[in-house]
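ok so for the tutorial part 2 we go from a plain amino acid sequence to predicted structure tokens. step 1 is just haveing the sequence, like this:
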Amino acid sequence: MENPTKIEDLIQQKKQKLSELKQKKRDEDLIHLGLFEKEYSDSQTNEYIDSEYYRETAMLKYYKKVPLNDVTDKQVDELLTLTKEIEHLEKEIKEVKGTLAPNTVAFTLKLIGIVVYIVGGITAMFFLGNGGPQVGLITIFSAFVSGTLFIGFSEIIKLLHSINDKQK
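step 2 — the prediction. this is what the tokens look like for a chain of 168 residues:
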């Protein structure tokens, strides 16, 4: 059987590690929320990785972000909840806006394709009616192929646009 003091020591170590991890997570949350002060240094080190440029002195000052200490756990939790809600709503609004915002290039290409169909059909009827069946058939075929290419490209652009919106 194991020594009870060893087990108690192990439990204490695990509790200490858990406490350190919770504190680290809290510090990261505070920094993410913008609740930090800047501790400056004249040189860049592993700790002081962020920097600000001062025009007046033409110097670069390095700093590290130090979380504020006077914030309660309840305030941190509330701020995190509100921030997540805001981010979620902004994402939803962006998705809705992306679906409602028309892609003008795709719309224009589709419109050109439809116009090519109509003009080609009218022109083909004119040639067919005036005794030029070969020219009429060539016109119908050309209008069909050209219009289909324009509409096809418009669909490709529409799909690429929706993929791009989803990645943002």
